[in-house]
């Protein structure tokens, strides 16, 4: 007997696969309104069992994902889960699809302008938003550390030069003694 947590989100609905190509496809889904969803998880499995991939994205409101590095002319099964604050939903219904053959590739001018772009995903994976945010945060932290170091270096340098000036400045004890007549000793 398995009891579901009452605050877990419901399973995604209307899971569809679009933009089929020889090595990629786009999966999209809907989430029932009013439910707190903070991400998704996708189970992608090749039907012959040779490959399985689990994709998990948190802190996103995306309702689509590009599946890349797929085998040409192969059958796949995907399932999508919603991720909520208290866990994951049950998996959606299984969706079967088959990638195209390289010779079946659609002409490049047939893509719709509203579709998610696939450029560059065949060979190199594009950076995700979270990765870019992490990179920018690290660069900003390094810039702050360098600025702090330069500020501390200037303070140390200023203190060091002030200490050297005080050491070379003659004190009143070591100055030339005055004569009682009111003048300094002079040599002729």
From TrEMBL:
Name recorded for this polypeptide: FNDC4 protein
InterPro entries in alphabetical order: FN3_dom, FN3_sf, FNDC_type_III_4/5, Ig-like_fold
Organism: Mionectes macconnelli (McConnell's flycatcher)
Source domain of life: Eukaryota
Biased composition range(s): Basic and acidic residues: 159-177
Gene Ontology biological process terms, A to Z: negative regulation of inflammatory response
Keywords: Glycoprotein, Membrane, Secreted, Transmembrane, Transmembrane helix
Region: Disordered, residue numbers: 159-188
Protein's membrane topology: Single-pass membrane protein
PANTHER family membership: FIBRONECTIN TYPE III DOMAIN-CONTAINING PROTEIN (PTHR14470), FIBRONECTIN TYPE III DOMAIN-CONTAINING PROTEIN 4 (PTHR14470:SF2)
Domain Fibronectin type-III as annotated: residue spans: 9-102
Keyword Transmembrane tagged: yes
Compartmental location: Membrane; Secreted
Transmembrane parts of this sequence: 132-150
One Gene Ontology cellular component: plasma membrane
Primary localization: membrane
Coiled coil spans: none
């Amino acid at each position: 007997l398995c009891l579901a947590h009452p605050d877990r989100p419901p399973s995604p609905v209307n899971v569809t696969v679009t933009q089929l190509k020889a090595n990629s496809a786009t999966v999209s889904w809907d989430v029932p309104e009013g439910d707190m969803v903070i991400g998704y998880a996708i189970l992608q499995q090749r039907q012959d069992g040779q490959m399985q991939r689990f994709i998990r994205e948190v802190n996103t409101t995306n309702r689509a994902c590009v599946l890349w590095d797929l085998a040409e002319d192969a059958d796949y099964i995907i399932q999508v889960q919603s991720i909520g604050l208290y866990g994951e939903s049950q998996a959606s219904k299984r969706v079967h699809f088959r990638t195209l053959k390289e010779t079946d590739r659609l002409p490049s001018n047939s893509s719709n302008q509203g579709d998610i772009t696939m450029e560059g995903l065949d060979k190199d994976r594009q950076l995700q938003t979270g990765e870019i945010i992490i990179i920018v945060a690290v660069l900003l932290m390094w810039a702050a550390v360098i600025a702090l170091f330069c500020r501390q270096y200037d303070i140390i340098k200023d203190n060091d030069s002030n200490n050297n000036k005080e050491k070379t400045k003659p004190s009143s004890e070591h100055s030339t003694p005055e004569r009682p007549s009111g003048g300094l000793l002079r040599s002729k």
